[in-house]
Amino acid sequence: MGGISIWQLAIVGVLVVLLFGRGKISELMGDVAKGIKSFKKGMKDDDEADATVEANAATERKISNPEPEPIDITPKKEGEKA
Predict the structure, then answer these.
(1) What is the tens place of the pLDDT at every residue in 24-72?
(2) Is the Cα torsion angle 55, 58, 64, 66 positive or negative in sign?
(3) Which of 10, 24, 35, 37 has CB atoms 3.0–4.6 Å from 20's, for a disulfide?
(4) 28 Cβ partners below 8 Å, 6+ apart?
């Protein structure tokens, strides 16, 4: 006693099919699958957006703080142009 038997599961399954119908159950499963796909796509888009933001931030740091160009300090001979 206390355990769920195969007959009890079968009766619950039959009641669910009678209440909702086969079409409703298949539609519900289709909607669940679409929701999962949408969630996965959203997570992937979020990861790509984060990577883009990081790349843009690195580019901005590079632009705002460019490396200084080396200065030529070798003496020039007379008559040479700088």
Answers:
(1) 778 888 888 999 999 988 888 877 777 787 777 777 766 665 667 778 7
(2) negative
(3) 24
(4) 20
Query: What domain range includes position 47?
Result: 21-63
List the one residue out of 3, 1, 25 whose CA is nearest residue 15.
25
- Inside any domain, residue 74: no
Assess if residue 38 is contained within a domain: yes
> What total number of domains does the chain contain?
1
Q: What are phi and psi of 71, to 5 degrees?
A: -100, 130
pTM of the model: 0.40
Q: Which of 38, 37, 14, 17 is nearest to 26 (CA)?
A: 17
In a 3-state reduction of DSSP, which class is residue 38?
A: helix
Within a domain: residue 77?
Answer: no
**Residue whose token pair is 């690195």:** 58
